[in-house]
Task: inverse folding
């Protein structure tokens, strides 16, 4: 088994260095490079579409599954209906 | 139509209150804690805010390895079962974690709230770590290297079947895990989904040397004690676009002990041969290392209790933006090279 370390690893750099995060040269280049390297988000997009397809009124008016966009309202409805909550976190569509 | 009215998913989802969160402004991120670099993440909980399970999780090179509609259905079924049990016996209740809101992270307030920008999930993680870095509480192994990869332990899941093990190698094979096992517990915590498993794995102390894994084997409960391999927590940080790790723009292969001895180097050192140089190194004038260079030291340091390569040493011990001096062997000659690290900035 390898040697393990004390958990806290602190940098030796000055506070000034850590405050310079938005002033670094080249961030725009890096940003565009990283955009090019973005991973495949196909399945998450598909899954979101699946969830969305259920969310949208695919069903008859009475069978429609609504997606709330308000967490306190979801809690209220769950209390009233005794249903569990399926809560999705995602960026805005 | 992916989920028609009478499809399994349609029937399952109709038994839930479905809600979607796209802004984190008023969300208790202490309760809804997860690795914010997930593209999608789900919780199944009840009106008492008791979380039954999570659905999500990823690995470094793919955001969707563990996400599929079959395992989502399993999670939805399991959520309903746990809800049924809870309603019969609310002693299943667990303590709520301390509340935390995004507005309590000063830099996040400055960069998003104050500018009326969206408080995106990943920004929470980014600013939390910057804040930790500034106040000296950043634990890089835990905060930077989130969501350890189960493949490092040798676990390969049949992911449409949830936590069914397809292949078991390495550390878990040595501990007795077998294909066909179904993982049900991780270090004492019940797990129902990959999201649960990865979250529990992330909570393991980075200094731990063993963890316990419980599996169901043909209806029998089997406990396994797994010896964690070296650097089990390590993952490629490349997809975490805006983390606090210093960007170095090269990769290297650790020399074997024999190779180090032949070169007259410290056999316990992190000397490594450069095998990849990112184009950004030249664009950003970060360094001029070449493939084949052997980096033997960073600022005069040649060994580290955790790092097995110079780039890992820099990521763990230096702050983004610092310039370091590398001791390099190029074509048999010892030279010194400067390397300027960079910090990712933010689009917003």
Result:
């Amino acid at each position: 088994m390898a040697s393990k370390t004390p958990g806290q690893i602190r940098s030796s750099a000055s506070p000034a260095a850590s405050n310079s995060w938005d002033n670094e040269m080249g961030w725009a280049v890096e940003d565009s490079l990283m955009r090019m390297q973005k991973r495949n988000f196909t399945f998450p997009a598909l899954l979101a579409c699946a969830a969305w397809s259920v969310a949208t009124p695919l069903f008859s008016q009475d069978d429609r599954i609504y997606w709330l966009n308000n967490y306190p309202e979801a809690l209220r409805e769950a209390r009233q209906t005794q249903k569990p909550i399926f809560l999705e976190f995602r960026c805005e569509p | 139509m992916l989920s028609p009215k009478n499809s399994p998913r349609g029937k399952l989802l109709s038994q839930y209150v479905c809600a979607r969160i796209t802004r984190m402004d008023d969300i208790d991120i202490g309760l809804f804690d997860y690795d914010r670099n997930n593209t999608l993440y789900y919780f199944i909980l009840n009106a008492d805010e008791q979380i039954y399970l999570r659905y999500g999780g990823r690995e470094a090179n793919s955001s969707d390895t563990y996400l599929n509609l079959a395992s989502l259905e399993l999670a939805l079924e399991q959520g309903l079962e746990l809800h049924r049990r809870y309603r019969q016996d609310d002693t299943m209740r667990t303590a709520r974690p301390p509340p935390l809101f995004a507005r309590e992270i000063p830099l996040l307030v400055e960069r998003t709230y104050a500018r009326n920008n969206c408080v995106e999930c990943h920004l929470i993680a980014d600013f939390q770590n910057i804040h930790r870095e500034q106040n000296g509480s950043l634990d890089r192994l835990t905060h930077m290297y989130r969501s350890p990869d189960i493949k490092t332990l040798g676990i390969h899941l049949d992911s449409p079947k949830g936590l069914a093990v397809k292949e078991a190698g390495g550390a878990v094979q040595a501990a007795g895990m077998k294909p066909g096992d179904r993982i049900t517990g991780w270090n004492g915590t019940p797990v129902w989904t990959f999201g649960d498993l990865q979250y529990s794995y992330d909570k393991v102390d980075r200094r731990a040397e063993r963890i316990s894994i419980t599996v169901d084997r043909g209806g029998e409960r089997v406990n396994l004690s797994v010896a964690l391999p070296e650097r089990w927590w390590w993952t490629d940080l490349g997809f975490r676009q805006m983390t606090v790790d210093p960007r170095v723009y090269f990769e290297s292969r650790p020399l074997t002990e024999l190779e180090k001895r032949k070169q007259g180097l410290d056999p316990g050192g992190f000397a490594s041969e450069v095998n990849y140089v990112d184009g950004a190194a030249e664009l950003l004038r970060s360094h001029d290392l070449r493939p084949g260079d052997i980096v033997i030291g960073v600022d005069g340091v040649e060994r580290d209790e955790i790092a097995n390569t110079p780039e890992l040493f820099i990521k763990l011990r230096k702050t983004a933006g610092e310039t370091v001096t590398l001791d390099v062997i190029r074509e048999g000659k010892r030279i010194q090279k400067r390397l300027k690290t960079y910090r990712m900035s933010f689009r917003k």
Q: What stands out?
A: Strands of chain A lie at 67-68, 85-89.
